[in-house]
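Field: COMPLEX_INPUT
Field: COMPONENT_COUNT = two
Field: RESIDUE_TOTAL = 570
Field: MODE = joint
Values follow.
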Amino acid sequence: MAREKFQTLTEQMFYTLLCLGEERCGADIMAQISAVTHGRVAVGPGTLYALLDSFLTQGMIRETACRGRKRSYILTDKGRTALENEYRRLSLVTEDYRRITSGEGGTP
Amino acid sequence: MRKKLYRLEFFYLFDHTGIQRHLEEMAAKGWLLEKLGAFWRYRRIEPQRLHFAITYFPEASVYDPEPREGQWDYQELCRDAGWTHTATQGQMQVFYTKAESPVPLETDPQIQVENIHRTMRRSQVPYYLGMMFIGLLQLGLQWQLYRTNPIDWLCGTSGIAACFCWVMLCGVSLLTLADYFRWHHRAQAEAREGRFTPTFSRTWLQTAVLALVLAVLVLWGVSTRGTRLGTFSVLYALATMVIVFGVTIVVNKLLKRRKATAMANRWGTALAAGLATMIFMGWSISYILNSGRLREGHTAETYTAYGITWDAYDDPIPLRIEDLTDTDYVRWSTKAETQASPFMAQYEYNQEARMGDPDQPELFYTVLDVKWSFLYNTAENAILQEAEQYNNLDFPEFWRSCTPTDPAPWGALRAYQIRRGGEAQDSYLLCYENHLATIAFYNWGTLTQEQMAKAGEILGKA
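Field: COMPLEX_OUTPUT
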């Protein structure tokens, strides 16, 4: 079955949306992601540009301000829902892992 | 020490890996890319280690008056991440950074592959498909010209040169598209696994093809130096290319300066180039018709008869009327024209009396030197068919035909005589070992065996 766009989020998508829980501009998003993940996840400016463009088109974020060339964005309700759905999915995955490796749900 | 360097670079548009590596090598030698175009311009810097990144903006175009809104935002984001923008042309943008371990511009392979594919689909794929379509049309045209008159086509170098160039261009276009789609297919699969796929170019091949095409064009030019029309054709082709290229660049820049939209620029440039080509073609045709400078042959003098000025030629010809018969007439006009290629050479000769003088015998003959034996039958059949090609435009009682005749008087291997409405004409096709000759006698009376033998002796050695 074809996967619908943003049905599951890549790490870069997830952390970008996560950072847009507050109003932020592009440079802040890149810095925040690196800080939150302790450098584990890096989003390049080219990739971030494409992600922001897609999220805007899908209505998952909206532009809040434009100072010179610096544009700021924030999550919309649709974006928040997508983020929460992904969190729930990851939680289920984490729970399944915990249950099976601890022997509660049968041997792996 | 020079401060600027111009280079012709042969990278595929999608070959970001190769371009990046090349620019890093240039920076290490002390050259930083400054401007993209037909030639890439570099400026002198201290040799240093720089990291480069190539990105693509699918919606951009070489016809844009200035970078699009999104491109400015993109460059701002890159600047925030420590990347400096150095050059843009159309959809391609080049950035560099001095940082030792920079965060790459692209960190998601799927997004990168999709971006490159959108870029290629909008520009390069239609361009190369268009080139192949035009190339196939041109090759079809050359095939049609060959079928219509194989001897003229094989004796001329322009058709052969055109075929070679279009085959090369079609081949390069096909290879470029094949290389791209092969990379795209592999890159898509790798991107799903989270891996980037390096790109490549065949720079050596494109350089070789360009060198070969230029060499063929030069050879074509040299081969036509013996004929005025041939030389004019070469100069005309070169001038047309310069005009189209020059007008395209000038009008494109002018419209960009005036902030015309990309669509207006595209159409304006195309119209200007088309108009310039048509004006130049009109001037060239007018020049050919009015100047008379392209008439072949060495005009010995001009004379007037029936109120019209005529040219009298004085070219040396191998077989003359005086070799075959006694005549007191001396005001002959003798004309010789040559057309040659690596495949065949055609020598056309005629000896005529001047207009207005009393009727004199006249001689028209052609020698066709076939340089490759496998083309001999093609040449012979073409001449035989040419004799009959206009029958469908004439009444049946005037139809022409070629009938075999005795070759012995001519010293030939085979001989054919032209008949018109069944009546034999003093017009023959003679087949020798490596060449053919056609000969027509006018106002001749009865052609004798001695005259055939003498003509055959000279034409057989020509």
